[in-house]
Amino acid sequence: MPKHYDVIAFGTGSAMNIVSALIEGGARMRFAVIENSMVGGICLTRGCIPTKMLLEVAKNIRRIRESGKLGIRASIESVDFAGVMERVWRRIYLESKEIEHSLKRHPLIDLYQVDGTFVGDYTVDVGGREIEGDKVLLCTGSRPAVPRVPGIDEVEYYTNDNFFRDLRELPRRTVVVGGGFVGIELGFFLAMMGSQVTILQRRSRILPDEEPEISERLQEDLSRYMEIRTNHEVVELRRSGE
User: Which cofactors does it use (predicted)?
Assistant: First the structure.
């Protein structure tokens, strides 16, 4: 007999806003929360929070380098790239663990840290065990869109899924495929850290979902630190040297 819940929630990001609102509103419900990755959702673990931490480092570097405009003589002795990345990753990890522990301690929530698979309309298999719910919240987040071009499997590349966890050595050169906000943020960070960055954007401007004036002004500013090529699409990847 499947264990019954009032609500089954997939994901621990935006789904927790709904679950928390219901609990704080006095609903005496039982919740099953399913998460097959780090607890906390995309924003915490590989999105807006870690990128903003890196951007703060990048903006401070730029302030120091351009402080001469204000009559201040200052210089940067060195930048510990691995230390910066490790600090961000440790903050992500600790925040995620704190949320995980709070969910495990909550009397109205059961946390299942496995894949969830529907085996019926409102019945889900969680690690070989079936649970059912009156309502289901699907807040599973998104995945990076990796272009399936020739050579993609022959080169090492990063997405926001593994950038914060795995990158500890500053690349001498970096090609960022995509001119959306994630690509622009990470590209600007790497440029400020000392990498030679090229942004490839297949559309006519970066940040195409923003107003044209914003995209144009930002591209003008960022072009001082990195090369931005619009109307460029990746058609093949191949190694050139070690």
Answer: FAD
